[in-house]
Amino acid sequence: MAGRGLRQGSGELGRVVSQAELILHAERERRNGRRVVFTNGCFDLLHPGHIRCLEEARALGDLLIVAINSDESVRRVKGAGRPVVPEAERAEVLAALAAVDYVTVFDEETPREIIAKILPNVLVKGSDWGPDQIVGREEVEAAGGRVVSIPLEPGFSTTDLLARIHGL
């Protein structure tokens, strides 16, 4: 979030913004007829599987929002030793991707609250999440949006990448 000392992007790059700023941007974009797509995750060690998923998500609309778990949230979800990369750096790297328009950070274990405030047209998760496990599904569908599950790229996972690093 902006208050965490994250880089503010400009031009063609995405922007790292606070949740409050993000809500305003998303509302403005929807009023202008743009289709808002939302996804979330830890994005600890960015790999080709992440990039391909983000590109597919972006292709589903006009604007891609990525919400990342804060460092504390990652620790609660993934355990001690994670994240490897601090939230400010994860956010900056994601915002530099052509597919990503906005990045924000959330502290909760799930992004339900920010999803309910943004109500994206499309909510995207990887296929490792079952339909009943996708947080925000009910809110998005109740508002007329849809939920899309994107198949994971075989051979790419942060857990496997960390295992390879530790095995060296």
How does this model look, in words?
This protein has helices spanning 19-31, 48-58, 71-78, 87-95, 112-118, 137-142, 158-167; strands spanning 15-16, 36-41, 63-69, 102-106, 122-126, 146-150. The protein has 168 residues and is α/β, with parallel strands linked by helices. The protein is globular. The longest helix is centred in the N-terminal third of the chain and has 13 residues, at 19-31. Helices cover 38% and strands 18% of the residues. A six-stranded parallel beta sheet has the order 1-4-3-2-5-6. Strand 2 (36-41), helix 2 (48-58) and strand 3 form a beta-alpha-beta unit. It has a single domain, classed as 3-Layer(aba) Sandwich (Rossmann fold). The protein is built from seven helices and six strands; from the N terminus they run E-H-E-H-E-H-H-E-H-E-H-E-H. Residues 1-11 have low confidence and may be disordered.
